[in-house]
Sequence to fold (64 residues):
Amino acid sequence: MARNRGDRTKLVSAGIKTDSLRTTVPGSIVRQMKLNAGDQLEWQIESLDPGIVKVLIVRLEKTH
Fold:
């Protein structure tokens, strides 16, 4: 399967007492998905082949 090079981000620790990591959503994805600060994202991961995963990111509807 050919791999297209996309935007790259670096993971950093989210804090001392957690195993969570943080990264930046690249501007191209922000524009394409029309994301705004405060939006909530749902992450779904599907394994395709060893070492290859498909990540589906869904912007959740805002609740008032």
